[in-house]
Amino acid sequence: MTSTLVRHDxxxxxxxxxxxxxxxxxxxxxxxxRMLVPLYEAVYxxxxxxxxxxxxxxxxxxxxxxxxxxxxxxxxxxxxxSSPEQLDLARERLVSDxxxxxxxxxxxxxxxxxxxxxxxxxGPAYNLVTAFQPIGCMAGDSEGxxxxxxxxxxxxERGARVVLAGxxxxxxxxxxxxxxxxxxxxxxxxxxxxxxPARRDDLEEVAQRAGLRPDGSxxxxxxxxxxxxxxxxxxxxxTGLFDAAAEATDQVQVDKELTEALHPHQRxxxxxxxxxxxxxxxxxxx
Length: 286
Description:
This protein has 286 residues and is of the alpha/beta class. It is built from eleven helices and nine strands.
C-alpha cells in the first residue's frame, strides 16, 4: 500500500500519461508516503532492526521503509511489480542517500517482480519480511496478500518474523469517512473497490492463509497531516484509491467531492489533520 491507502497498487490505466504517473509519484513521495513513518519506526524499534537484519520488503514502492531500515544497519531487498515509477525513485533514494564512496546502502537490492525473484541461492536467508501496505480500507484489498506472503516464506529462515499492517477501527480513523467518497463515486464499480471497515482479525486471517503463526501485535497512531487542502487532495489521490471513482465519473467531480469530505478536517490555520490508528501483526514462518 503500498497500494492500501497509503500506496496505489492498481495497474496503470492505458489512458494515464507518463506525465501523470510522474506527477502522482512525486505527490506520493513528497506528501503521502511519510504518513506511515510512525508505523515503520514502531515496528523497527520493537523488532530491534539493525546490522543483523536481512529484510525483504514486499510491495516496497518508493522505498522509504527500506531506507529507514538501511539507516539502522539492515541489509534490505525490496520487491514490487505495481509501479515502475516508484521503484525508480526507491533506487535513487537507496543509492543517493548512501554513504560517500558506496553504491547503495549495505548492498540494497530492488526488484521489479515477484518474491521468488528475490532469492539469493548462495546467500543467507531473510530473517524479516515486511508487508507494510495497510489492508482494511477497501473491499478485497487483502486479496493476493496471503499468496504473496506464502511465496516469500521459503526465502526466509525458520521462525523468521513477518510483519503485516492494517487500518485500525473506523471510529479511530478519521480518514475512513473520506475514503467513502471513493466508494460512492465508483458505484457501480464498487464490487471491486468499495469501502469497508477494518475487522479485528483481518491480519490474523491473512497470516493463517499464508501458513504463518501470529506472534504479537501492536497499534500505532499515524495521523494524516497536510499543509493545506490542495496538498491533502493531491496526497490522497496519489494513493490510487480514487482511480475507479474518476473512471466512473470524472476527475473534476472526484476532486470536488473529496475536497468537501476533507473540509470537516481542515483547521483554522488551513492545515488538514486526520487522526488515525494503524495496527500491525508480527507472525512467524513455519
